[in-house]
Amino acid sequence: MKKYVFAVLTIFVGYSAFSQVKIGLKVAPNFSWSQTIPKNDVIYKTNESGVIDTLTVGPNGLKLRGGAGVIVDLHLSDNFAFATGVDYTTKGAGFKVNDSSVTYSLQYLEVPLTIKVFTNEVMDYTKVYFQIGITQNVNIGAKSNKSKTYKDPNDATKDIPFTKNINLLETSLLAGAGIEMEMGESTSLLAGLSYNRGLINIDATNTFKSPNKLANGYLAINVGLKF
Q: For 161-170, how does the pLDDT look when each residue is reduced to its tens digit (9 = 90+)?
């Protein structure tokens, strides 16, 4: 583990030495959804004897969520950068199960590991950028139907945190585009859109039989400043 951490730090320091580091802040409201992969009919094991039933599980529409974060762009040239940082993001919309629905509100810390490619100036002091990569996410909070807990089915006097139903770690695909406009010698205004699609199962209860899984997705509006 120590060797791995040392290697990562060495790469980061080396990158920084040969690049121009730009740091910024952003806000990122998003339109979030939850989805089943690969299909809406999910097999559910109903008891320990192996009896199974089929539930119709599908998306529960879009929900407006929020986010904010720190941008770290390591510019290797005027047109290419390694883009990372730390984002706080709320997402999740929940699912419709047969004739009922449940709403999720999930909180994550997200670390993007992406590449940004910049065009030459499309007009004075303004460039277009394209971004692609992944985000590594850590769940730090979860609600179901606005509640952080639910009753233990085996003991109604006990409350179980809903976070226990959500996997701690998540990996997502990130793709985005936008513009950056220079506002001075060292300050830039940015605005853009980003698409985030969960790649792994967020369900920690082992309720849904493989290969079915539950995943997050969202479309974010990014507005920020780089210094």
A: 999 999 999 9
Give yes or no for a contact between 135 and 174, defined as CB atoms under 8 angstroms apart: yes
The single-letter DSSP state of residue 61 is -
How far is CA 26 from its chain centroid? Answer: 15
Q: Which of 109, 91, 85 is nearest to 197 (CA)?
A: 91
User: pLDDT class for 40, splitting at 50, 70, 90?
Assistant: low
pTM: 0.85
- Could you tell me which residue, 200 or 56, shows the higher pLDDT? 200
- Which class in CATH covers the domain with range 21-226? mainly beta
Q: Are 142 and 94 in contact (CB under 8 A)?
A: no
Domain boundaries, the chain: 21-226
Average model confidence (pLDDT) across the chain: 88
